[in-house]
Design goal:
Organism (chains A, B): Dioscorea cayennensis subsp. rotundata
Number of helices of chain A: 5
Oligomer: homodimer
Domain LOB (chains A, B): 13-114
Largest sheet of chain A: none
Protein name (chains A, B): LOW QUALITY PROTEIN: LOB domain-containing protein 4-like
Number of strands of chain A: 0
Radius of gyration of chain A: 20 Å
InterPro entries (chains A, B): LOB
Family (chains A, B): Belongs to the LOB domain-containing protein family.
């Protein structure tokens, strides 16, 4: 079979990553399981923030059973950075940390008056 | 003055980014204010996780007065991903979210018994 860029080897459609990168989507494509063709925005975000080659390297360095979680957290992080280029995920961390501090103070007060 | 790769134009030493990338550090280098030569690990992390060109683009797209915060949050995020390639920053978010939930429950109980 002749391989064509943007076609999944063996028939099916290419994953979202190979489609965006306009490359042949091999049977063992490292992106395909985590970046399906019907959710192109996910790969678009990680590509914009981390770059395809860094995402590829990061996934390859992890055991297969952990790659799905890593893909999901990369998408989460990338979306946060696209939404808030200044603070990204760190904005959520800092706001949650403030919530924890406030709740601890409230709890100490509530317990003191029991 | 002849410009040499890895030398800061005008004399001084190149910033950590230009040193790692082995390029001339111009007077108006976008990295220099946020990645000083004496903290090479900061740029090494963001370069590994985001890639120098993505960091450059992100900083350039922000007003100058916000770039220092953006640089710091990128370093924080990159260090988290280097430490924990699976969850990165998202690990901290999920653990803080659990803390918030637990504290809210404890507070509700403490308030009910007042």
């Amino acid at each position: 079979m002749r391989e064509v860029a943007g076609k999944r080897q063996g028939g099916g459609s290419p994953c979202a990553a190979c489609k965006l990168l306009r490359r042949r989507c091999a049977e063992d494509c490292v992106f395909a399981p985590y970046f399906p063709a019907d959710q192109p925005h996910k790969f678009a975000s990680v590509h914009k923030v981390f770059g395809a080659s860094n995402v590829n390297k990061l996934l390859q360095e992890l055991p297969v059973q952990h790659r799905s979680d890593a893909g999901a957290t990369l998408v989460y992080e990338a979306n946060a950075r696209v939404r808030d280029p200044l603070y990204g995920c760190v904005g959520a961390i800092s706001s949650l940390q403030q919530q924890v501090d406030a709740l601890q103070t409230q709890l100490a007060i509530a317990q003191a008056y029991r």
